[in-house]
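Board notes (copied after class):
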Amino acid sequence: MVMLAAPAGAAVTPYAVTAIISNFNGQAINSGGWVAGYSEDAGGVAKAGLYNGVSVISLGTLGGETHQSRAYAVNDQGQVAGFSGPASGTAGRQAFIHTDGSMTAVSDLTGSYNAAYGINNSGTTAGYYTTSATPVTSRAYSVSGGVVSYLPAPVSTTAEDINDDGWITGGTGAVRQAYLSDGPGMTYLGTLGGETSSGNALNTHHQVVGYSTTSGVTTSSTRAFLYEEGIMRNIQTGTLWETRTGYAEGINDDGQVVGRLTGGSGVAFIWDEGVMYDLNSLLDTPISGTALRANDINNGGQIIVTYTSGGQTHTAILSPIPEPGSLSLLAAAGFTAARRRRRRSS
């Protein structure tokens, strides 16, 4: 098992691969284990899809079969957000929301690029679009009930995720800086010592994860960070991978962080209670492939890992294996929950 030495008494949670979704690039997982992402045809044209625990449902496009679409977020109601547009290039891309079997544009914003990267459980989407003006710049926004709200930073801002409070994270400025916004206001999160940073995900406790350079703007100095209580922390410090380029991609409400380290075949990692683990080392049967990366984690601890094998991208769903002593408690909890569900439906 590859990890930093764990604190005395710390328990390491093993994981099992509970599903393999072939030719599917999973980007987000909801509390029910549904995964939003996209597949690519033989010509490399992407189509958004939603894995519902059994199979991948094609979500279509906003412009017919000749267009592409990609899904980047899914909420607990199964609503999906992403973009759709022409099969090549970025011009003409339009943010969408997919609800009850129908894909619709989330706004009438126009520009050379428009995409939604987050959606919360109220159905509010967050994304950004690039203006058609010269010089080209980007503006971050949220959309709720068809009403567009812009973030206070006027130019060069992206929105990467939104939580159930409507708080948003992303990057802003000509030299990209991570931020956390409650809508009217914006807090700049700083860097790990370099010049650039960006927020990729946040949870309901307003903890933010992402990446930052530790020196200048060089990619080789990029490290994964966790921001909480006003402090940005390099979560690779003290690990076997403290000199590797790293990105934190997802965080759940327990503060578990997942992401990726570049180099070699790639490392999909989980950071839990101050310890970083190679997810492959927590599996009975390691994933065989390259370009491994962990893209998201839900509140049940399920993780989606993408990897390349046979010239295609595949997605594995990893589920934590409960300790033997907790199985009876889980069974009792499941029985109680089932009784509650029947009572509500009776």
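Comment from the instructor: The two ends are 49 Å apart (CA to CA). The longest strand covers residues 312-320.
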